[in-house]
Amino acid sequence: MAKRKKQTHSTEDHCEKCHQDTLTHIQMGQYFFLLSALPFLMAIVLTFVVHPVFLTFIPLVAWMNFRIAKKKTPLRRCTNCHHTMTPQKRTHHT
Ligand SMILES: [Zn+2]
User: Fold this and answer.
1) How far is CA 5 from CA 1, 47, 73, in A?
2) How far is the CA of 37 from the centre of ligand 1 (A)?
3) Where are the transmembrane segments (predicted)?
4) What is the whole-number distance in angstroms between the Cα of residue 15 and the centre of ligand 1?
5) Confidence at residue 5, expressed as pLDDT on a 0 to 100 scale
6) Distance (Å) from CA 81 to ligand 1 centroid
7) What is the number of structural domains in the chain?
8) What is the whole-number distance in angstroms between the Cα of residue 23 and the centre of ligand 1?
9) How much distance in Å is there from the Cα of 18 to the middle of ligand 1?
10) Long-range contact pairs involving 36-45 (C-beta distance under 8 Å, separation at least 24)
11) Residue 2 counted as domain residue
12) Does the N-terminal peptide bond of residue 59 adopt cis geometry, omega within 30 degrees of 0?
């Protein structure tokens, strides 16, 4: 009996959209970086081009993104259909 096609049916590691198990996990640090890279760059550019007042945006953006990242991670992203899944109601783990 070498037939091992039956997969363990854990929705945990399957995409809820296309049901493939091509999920990558995005950790908080990565997600934070993803969220922050562009606004940070914008703030730095604007600081040099327009006014240094835009430097104050950096901690603001960092704080906001930190909160978002904390809430949304660990994020699971399907590499097949690019569907992202945020953790739904989970018992606190930290
Ligand atoms: Zn998918």
Assistant:
1) 11, 57, 31
2) 26
3) 40-66
4) 5
5) 55
6) 4
7) 1
8) 8
9) 4
10) 36/61, 36/62, 36/65, 39/65
11) no
12) no
Domain coverage including residue 74: 22-85
- DSSP-assigned beta bridge partners for residue 84: 77
**6 has pLDDT over 80:** no
How far CA 10 is from CA of 3, 46, 49, 50, in Å, comes to 19, 47, 51, 52
Residue the block writes with tokens 């899944």:
85
**Residue 92 placed within a domain:** no
Residue in the structure block whose two tokens are 């590691």: 13
Is 16 part of a structural domain of the chain?
A: no
How far away, in angstroms, is 76 Cα from ligand 1 center?
A: 10
Ligand 1: distance of its center to the CA of 13 in Å? 11
Cα(79) to ligand 1 centroid in Å equals 7
Residue scoring higher pLDDT (87 or 65): 65
Distance 64 CA to ligand 1 centre (A): 28
pLDDT at 27: 92
